[in-house]
Amino acid sequence: MSRSEELFAQAQHSIPGGVNSPVRAFNGVGGTPLFIERANGAYMYDADDQRYIDYVGSWGPMILGHNHPAIRAATLAAVERGTSFGTPTSIEITMAEKIKSIVPSIEKVRMVNSGTEATMTAIRLARGYTKRDKILKFEGCYHGHADSLLVKAGSGALTLGVPSSPGIPADVAAHTLTVTFNDLESVKEIFAEVGDQIACIIVEPVAGNMNCIPPVPGFLEGLRSICDSYGSVLIFDEVMSGFRVAPGGAQERYNVLPDLTTLGKVIGGGMPVGAFGGKREIMDYIAPVGPVYQAGTLSGNPVAMAAGLAALSQLSTPGLYENLYARVDQLLNGLQERADAAGIPLTTNRAGSMFGVFFTTDKNITSFEQATKCNMEHFKAFYHHMLKAGVYLAPSAFEAGFMSAAHTEADIQQTLDAAEKAFAALK
Ligand code: PMP
Predict the structure, then answer these.
(1) Which CATH number fits the domain that encloses residue 405?
(2) Could you tell me the pTM of the whole model?
(3) pLDDT reported for residue 379
(4) Which member of 98, 132, 174, 298 has the greatest number of CB atoms within 10 A?
(5) Which value does ipTM take for this structure?
(6) Biggest CA-to-CA distance, the chain
(7) Cα 59 to ligand 1 centroid, rounded to whole Å
């Protein structure tokens, strides 16, 4: 029995399912999750001291690789000064100014403690600002687990086959309209019916919770113009795509500006941080200047701000993004070549440092429906071959992969060597 198996068995007695977040339980692939003891750069080490090349990066935050020296130093220095004050601090101003300088559409920003808090509040703000109740989201997009957003959601909700969870009152879910990602017609149709009641569209501008699906040309532009026509707020949930698909996120990469943006993951450098920001006029609708209430005991926490700011500051290192994109190309082109050679149907998607691998004969994956029709048996078998060979991928076919700046050409080569053997074994 491995140490992870022992720990997983023990954990089940006192933690539901043995985990503090569902997808970690390996429901999507079967088997026992790894219990990780430490991580450095591109590598994580489990409780048996096995090394893994990590393409999950704590589900996105670790864009610089694990345990980056600048983040570690800034975090430890902040701890020396005290862990929480519950008062304004100067580092919160520095953080807000930093975010404004990187994310094109943000004029004002508020810090929270998770992506869920960010999206939950952005929705409330959009509703309060427009004085409308309905919201529009896309099937397969995940925006955290707030009641109104856990309807036809992606990520763990999809992996577990729970499209919308018990515990959400029907009359709350009734205000959430869902349409098809990358299908502007479905958005136009619903707006033609009830557009004057829709407070906002919330979208992952690069979908990362139904595997990785970038927007088709014209999709984001279309959402922008529909929101303009109907006076609805456009929210880009960039919790995953922020700082990842371009320094300024999807809004920079595709040159479409939302009214509000939600951020998380990279922004905290591995600490629990989220943020929402956007147009001054809308942001000033939030308490204490505006009537829409939102608060947080630990929001803007000085240790979390120090870690996040150190991460964001490192992102301006010359060549960092070019290197990330080159590594993604090396990985995906290499996987495609090897799958083709082995006769395994495979298609890949990429957007900056996010990527997706689909076991399917479809050559162009743009929809949720295509993502759900992939060969799950191939995915699961491939997953476990890779894990055995020391490569850690997201334990679900409905999650994006993440490259970090710490991954080297040699790491990718080692991953490709493992994949070649895995594809051969799938035949
Ligand atoms: N939005 C998106 C796009 C996400 O990917 C996630 C988390 N995977 C969230 C929101 C929720 O963030 P958190 O888990 O920090 O609450």
Answers:
(1) 3.90.1150.10
(2) 0.97
(3) 97
(4) 132
(5) 0.99
(6) 62
(7) 9
